[in-house]
Amino acid sequence: MLKKGSFLKELVSRFLSDEVPGLSAQLSYFFLLSLFPFLIFLITLIGYLPISQTEVLNTIEEFAPGQSMQLINTTLDEILNDRNGGLLSFGIIATLWSASNGINAIVRAFNKAYDVDESRSFIVARGMAILLTIAMVFVIIVALLLPVFGKEIGVFIFSNFGFSAEFLTIWNTLRWLVSGIILFIVFTALYFVAPNKRLHIKDGLPGAFAATLGWMVVSLAFSYYVGNFANYSATYGSIGGIIVLMIWFYLSGMIIILGGELNAMLYKRRTIG
Predict the structure, then answer these.
(1) CA 193, CA 124: separation in Å to the nearest integer?
(2) Distances (CA, A) of 107 to 124, 126, 256
(3) How far does CA 156 lie from the centroid of its chain?
(4) 13, 122, 251, 263: which is deepest, by most CB within 10 A?
């Protein structure tokens, strides 16, 4: 049996030697670049779907810090008030390019974790990043649609048995479970496909589970901290919302990379023995 101390010591060593803080900063930059094009695309697209802009923003608000939500709402209102026919096309192109840059940064981080070089050509690597981005967009849209249809079906079924009030309590719990499952699927795909190494899908499961749990806990804790203790606007003025958003993205990037480091560490221990 491997000792807990040696496990944590190796993980901390990887955290420092693989420059996880620096790579997380890169990811936060690309996340910020892709956020608004993605939201433009998503909110323009919902005109064709049975969900509203409010439901999209409420889903984000469950995890995002309060000050950053003010920034997101204000910026989206400014953009969408100036909307035109090419907004959906712009959103698709800008989202694919910006988000694929973020995926490329994740690929570099995972390759470093597994100690492998990127041998795939630029076209193959970029194509994979774009396909992963499209897959994630699809999963996010499904994640947004599930609560809508699930709630309607649930209310219909439970109301027939006179349990509509109890259902709302159950539903609020299920929404968190569904969010966790969607995140787990996204992270598993990312940890399986992104590294330039032949892996089995089960090799991505430990990191995906840790990243899902870690991201949800850290996001909620950071949101609570910002809402109750920190006042970034007092320090940074009008850009306080951007600072909060960048810190949230930085922490998110760190958790994603640490999940990859955990998978790489466990893989190495299994294969070397």
Answers:
(1) 12
(2) 12, 10, 11
(3) 32
(4) 263
Q: Distances in Å between the alpha carbon of 112 and those of 108, 206, 270?
A: 6, 18, 18
Token pair belonging to 197: 């190494």
| Domain boundaries defined on the chain | 16-272
Q: Residues for the chain: how many in total?
A: 273
Cα separation values, 50 from 44, 45, 46, Å: 12, 10, 7
**What pLDDT sits at residue 1?**
44
3-state helix, strand, coil in the chain (%, to 5): 85, 0, 15
The pTM (predicted TM-score) of the whole model is 0.79
Q: What does the block give as tokens for 84? A: 């035109």
- Asked if residue 255 lies in contact with residue 109, where contact means CB atoms within 8 angstroms, the answer is no
Distance CA 140, CA 186 (A): 9
Alpha-carbon dihedral of residues 86, 89, 92, 94, nearest 10 degrees? -60
Report the interhelical angle of 240-272 vs 20-45 (nearest 10°): 120
- Give dist(CA 106, CA 257) in Å, integer: 7
130-160: per-residue pLDDT in tens?
787 777 766 666 666 665 556 666 666 666 6
Task: Tell me what pLDDT residue 50 has.
Answer: 65
114 to 73, 102, 198: CA distances (angstroms)? 39, 19, 11
Q: What is the pLDDT of residues 199-223, one digit of tens each?
A: 999 999 999 999 999 998 888 888 8
pLDDT higher than threshold 80 for residue 232: no
Output the CA torsion 123→129→134→139 (10° steps).
160
Tell me the mean pLDDT in the region 236-257: 85
81: pLDDT strictly greater than 50 = yes
Rounded Cα distance between 225 and 247, Å, is 12
